Hints:
Blueprint: E1 3-8, H1 12-23, E2 28-34, H2 40-46, E3 51-55, H3 63-73, E4 78-83, H4 88-96, E5 101-104, H5 109-120, E6 125-126, H6 128-142, H7 157-167, H8 172-179, H9 183-197, H10 202-211
Parallel strand pairs: 1-2, 1-3, 3-4, 4-5, 5-6
Amino acid sequence: MATKILIADDHSMFADGIESILNRQDGIKVVGKCYDGISILPFLKQNEVDIILLDVNLPEKNGIEVCKEVIAAFPEMKILAISMFNQESYVSEILKFGAKGYILKNTGQDELMQAIQTIEGGNTFFSKDVTQTIMRGLMNDRKGGTKSEGFIPKITRREKEVLKLIVQEFTTQEIGDKLFISLKTVESHRSSLLAKVNARNTAGLVRIALEKKLIE
């Protein structure tokens, strides 16, 4: 029986590429693709899925929130997180909510297949660079250092621009108009910022941004 996989990624070209790779593999069937966080749970209620390849930075609802909701509803679901960001805050949060693995988007085809086979077998899998990030986090914990007080997340120039407008209470539409980017892109940046600072909502994001002086 084929392993049924759902691809959840807001970049259609990336999702199509992954689908093309997986469809060439024996024993694997891509049963669907979701391009935002809010469509995943409804899809799972209507379709049989064994493994979700879950982008951490999804619009509407980020991958960390999705992971928490999916595992609560489907405790046996296997989730492999995929991200451009090798950041300890991302990794620790999504693992805390039940993901079985974390790989980077520059992962090669062989490592992707190894990751899928590993978590399908009930084990965890991390990209080599992600493993090093996890180990650094453990070492910091042992030394008494945490990311709560002194932790300053790394944010991109564009994320900083979006964050500044969020703090100034501009709407998603207004932010998109000011920065000449789509609403989907604005939401993607918002989701990324929420994950990077471990905030549950926009109010928490604003509070942490001001506390950590993430914007001028």
